[in-house]
Amino acid sequence: xxxxxxxxxxxxxxxxxxxxxxxxxxxxxxxxxxxxxxxxxxxxxxxxxxxxxxxxxxxxxxxxxxxxxxxxxxxxxxxxxxxxxxxxxxxxxxxxxxxxxxxxxxxxxxxxxxxxxxxxxxxxxxxxxxxxxxxxxxxxxxxxxxxxxxxxxxxxxxxxxxxxxxxxxxxxxxxxxxxxxxxxxxxxxxxxxxxxxxxxxxxxxxxxxxxxxxxxxxxxxxxxxxxxxxxxxxxxxxxxxxxxxxxxxxxxxxxxxxxxxxxxxxxxxxxxxxxxxxxxxxxxxxxxxxxxxxxxxxxxxxxxxxxxxxxxxxxxxxxxxxxxxxxxxxxxxxxxxxxxxxxxxxxxxxxxxxxxxxxxxxxxxxxxxxxxxxxxxxxxxxxxxxxxxxxxxxxxxxxxxxxxxxxxxxxxxxxxxxxxxxxxxxxxxxxxxxxxxxxxxxxxxxxxxxxxxxxxxxxxxxxxxxxxxxxxxx
Length: 474
What we know:
Elements: E1 6-10, E2 15-19, H1 26-34, H2 44-63, H3 69-83, H4 102-119, H5 132-136, H6 142-178, E3 183-188, E4 191-197, H7 198-219, E5 225-226, H8 241-255, E6 260-261, H9 265-270, H10 273-299, E7 310-311, H11 329-353, H12 363-387, E8 393-394, H13 396-404, H14 414-417, H15 419-432, H16 436-442, H17 448-454, H18 457-460
């Protein structure tokens, strides 16, 4: 059996054989052998964030006169490759790891050092050329690099999630227009209520999604202040002032994000409440998606024995035993994604509150759960909009039939015959299986012309007393 060539590397614990062609080193390898909890690696956005932070640090160290320009350029070139999607397979640490992200930071240091060594004509593992700690990690600590990278990654993912919610809003608003003239029965507490239009129902969903978009669009403000330059506990020990005052400006230019140095880097190093706030708004958006999904399932239930007021797009066969059955699978899938986001929010909350004293050791869990939740939200909103909402049809006759026979129509009569008489009309209509219109006409409470005017869709689905000219109306 052939053995792959290896190189021997040393760390505080001892020595390990590392594959000779690997860009990772002993620290990443030891971590990968220790932690296999999540069963998946760092989120791609976090890897990109780490690369961007490392590039900013290298350039800041060079401009401050702390790092030779050729070394800084080689590290920056390697970082650009990683940020562009290369070498992600060399990030081998598990997403859930002890050490507050030290393994992830060292993995980044090793990958960038070894790739930079190649750019300078050397071979991976020759740390006399570029050293993972002395050069790539110069002026830094895991405790300012990792939180900053998490913030960068979350800011970048927030934009995608907010955009997806905006696209869903547009899809719902298009249906609002399509169904503006479809009279249907409103329902409260799962009971028949008063008429409304199907367009009004879609408009309400669109407005809820719009609020979620606005929250996500604005909450990035909570993440823009970073502790880069604060090193171990936010005091900036071992970081030159020349470096501290330019590194965030460079990172802002690299990422295009509104990054700023925190006014209190000790606070930003130890407290993770900003991530809890962001997660809470992601959870809120997920709750909106779950609610809309549940409503769509109810309105499309049937097709013969349910509400059947709308028809969802047919995506796949719904049963291995019942021929012809089609299930509302998109809404079911989106609901499950929402449940997962809500569960992740609890994990983020627990991790944030469990940080002790001057550092939160559980930031890897926060990063893992929040970035995955942002992914899930973006994909769920797009899935719901593209595969479900845009293809929804209205069963106009069913909607009209439910509205016509609704006992809630008696509410429209209250302004003309009073609550007590209207109640009697509703009760008799229910007992005799008649419509509200039929009973009111039979009892001579209102004329046919009056009932036509009062019970017209336009009158019953807008503010005011139906059938009565409003003050100031033309």
